[in-house]
């Protein structure tokens, strides 16, 4: 992947980045479980039985049994999480650190007393310092590699291919991922219920679903490889214990959430972990603070748009990167911040050195208010003006303050700032293409408590 990772040539050092986090998620979650006395007792009583409860890889379990921290870090472990394992064994942090150096405990302690390891010769791989060379390995790790030589050789070949890919990309010999279109739609939960209960043909619902029929055909003709789907979590995966402003799902799959009525009968969502991790690292390096989520259940905010564009298949035909935005608890991000974030996401996607077709979707809205004496507010004129401006003058639209959304579009109309993320990722905003082509536009009132808006913009 075409990301700047200068830390890869620092000797004796494993930087815990988004890729490592995804790889080591369950290993680190196991370590976190050891923060309670009950779990520590269970683990000590029967390590194998306790480890079997966690969906780690066989190699991760072997590294834990061997207490080989270098090995565990190779498989995605982070030292702060692995420290819970060391604490369970009664080790100090100094003992844990020393165990990874190949030195005896006394020699490591003496080195620290003498002022610690010098940075001289240890800044770049290949220098003459005392931290150069391969990591210290336990006998169990060496035996594992002997037993799994074929798999290890395949991994080395994969790593070599990755390096060649990166070199080819640097020479301009490969295509990159590109954003082909942006899609905008409301994600009303009642729409999902109408689909699930077979009510789409009823007089109340038929006009709404008819408005999406052209979109389904368009999607069949323009199906992407990946959908980057911007939505908001509706107090499902994020409760008041933690509300991230921007959160990206980097897992391999995402189960439909139970929102109180049971999970929707829709397929699980298949992610694209490599691209998601790439986007996370790239966007954070562009000074946007993202929360990386390796375990996420997705609610109607994501699954309803999928139904509207793809129907009700047995499996979703595309991979999806969920991107959750806080529009529940103030302060919420401004339209200008969301618009700028869309630009950063475009740069991230276009730096991914695999020729994927990516669509970016903005969901939520349009005008609606779900609470208080003003519940039921709809503003058709404001909504349609929003659509006009989203097409023709998105940069100016991004300057609209929060209070206008609340006053004109209702307390929950603030969800529309998420549409600005998708619009900010389009080519005309970047100055690399003309104005987008409007492939479809639709507006309908009502769908339960909400005005429904829908738009498809194609990059030309």
Corresponding CATH superfamily of the largest domain: LigB-like
Mean pLDDT: 94
Structural class: alpha/beta
Number of domains as seen in the coordinates = 2
Q: Count every helix, treating DSSP H or I runs of 4 or more residues as helices.
A: 22
Q: How far apart, in Å, are the first and last alpha carbons?
A: 26 Å
Q: How much helical structure, as a percent, in the residues?
A: 40-55%
| Biggest sheet: strand arrangement | 6-3-7-2-8-1-10-9
* CATH-scheme architecture of the largest domain: 3-Layer(aba) Sandwich
Can you offer a commentary on this structure?
The chain is of the alpha/beta class and 460 residues long. The protein is built from 22 helices and 10 strands. The chain is elongated, with a radius of gyration of 25 Å. An 8-stranded mixed beta sheet has the order 6-3-7-2-8-1-10-9, with helices on both faces. A two-stranded antiparallel ribbon has the order 4-5.
Provide key terms for this protein.
460 residues, alpha/beta, Protocatechuate 4,5-dioxygenase, Chain A, Protocatechuate 4,5-dioxygenase, Chain B, 2 domains, eight-stranded mixed β-sheet, two-stranded antiparallel ribbon
Which helices and strands occur, and which strands form pairs?
Elements: H1 18-23, H2 25-33, H3 37-45, H4 47-51, H5 58-66, H6 69-74, H7 79-88, H8 93-99, H9 105-113, H10 139-147, H11 149-170, E1 178-185, H12 189-196, H13 206-210, H14 213-221, E2 226-231, E3 246-249, E4 253-254, E5 269-270, H15 273-285, E6 291-293, H16 300-310, E7 319-325, H17 335-350, E8 357-363, H18 380-392, H19 394-397, H20 402-409, H21 417-424, H22 427-430, E9 437-447, E10 450-458
Parallel strand pairs: 1-8, 2-7, 2-8, 3-6
Antiparallel strand pairs: 1-10, 3-7, 4-5, 9-10
């Amino acid at each position: 992947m075409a990301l700047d990772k200068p830390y890869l040539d620092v000797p004796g050092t494993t930087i815990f980045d988004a890729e490592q986090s995804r790889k080591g998620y369950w290993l680190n979650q196991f370590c976190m479980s050891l923060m309670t006395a009950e779990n520590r007792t269970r683990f000590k009583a029967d390590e194998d039985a306790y480890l079997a409860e966690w969906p780690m890889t066989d190699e991760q379990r072997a590294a834990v049994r061997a207490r080989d921290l270098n090995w565990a870090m190779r498989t995605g472990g982070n030292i702060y999480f692995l420290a819970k394992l060391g604490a369970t064994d009664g080790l100090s942090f100094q003992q844990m650190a020393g165990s990874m150096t190949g030195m005896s405990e006394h020699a490591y302690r003496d080195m620290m007393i003498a002022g610690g390891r010098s940075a001289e010769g240890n800044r770049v791989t290949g220098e003459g310092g005392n931290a150069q060379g391969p990591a210290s390995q336990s006998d169990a790790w060496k035996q594992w590699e002997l037993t799994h030589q074929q798999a290890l050789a395949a991994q080395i070949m994969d790593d070599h291919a990755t390096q060649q890919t990166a070199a080819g990309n640097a020479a301009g010999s490969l295509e990159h991922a590109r954003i082909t279109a942006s899609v905008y739609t409301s994600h009303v939960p009642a729409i999902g219920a109408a689909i699930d209960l077979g009510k789409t043909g009823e007089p109340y619902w038929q006009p709404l679903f008819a408005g999406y029929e052209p979109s389904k055909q368009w999607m069949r003709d323009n199906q992407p490889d990946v959908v980057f789907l911007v939505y908001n979590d509706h107090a499902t995966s994020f409760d008041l214990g933690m509300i991230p402003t921007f959160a990206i799902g980097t897992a391999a799959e995402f189960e439909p959430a139970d929102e109180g009525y049971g999970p929707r009968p829709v397929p699980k969502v298949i992610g694209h972990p490599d691209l998601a991790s790439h986007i996370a690292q790239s966007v954070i390096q562009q000074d946007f603070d993202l929360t990386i989520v390796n375990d996420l259940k997705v609610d109607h905010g994501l699954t309803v748009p999928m139904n509207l564009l793809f129907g009700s298949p047995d499996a979703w035909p595309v991979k999806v990167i969920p991107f959750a935005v806080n529009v529940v608890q103030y302060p919420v991000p401004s339209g200008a911040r969301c618009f700028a974030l869309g630009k950063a996401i475009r740069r991230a996607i276009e730096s991914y050195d695999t020729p994927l077709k990516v669509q970016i979707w903005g969901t939520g809205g349009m005008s609606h208010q779900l609470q208080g004496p003003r519940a039921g507010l709809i503003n058709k004129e404001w909504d349609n003006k929003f659509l006009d401006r989203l097409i023709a003058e998105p940069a100016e639209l991004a300057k609209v303050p929060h209070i206008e959304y609340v006053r004109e579009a209702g307390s929950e109309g603030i969800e529309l700032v998420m549409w600005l993320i998708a619009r900010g990722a389009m080519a005309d905003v970047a100055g690399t293409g003309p104005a987008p082509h409007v492939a479809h536009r639709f507006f309908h009132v009502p769908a339960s408590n909400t005005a429904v808006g829908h738009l498809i913009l194609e990059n030309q």
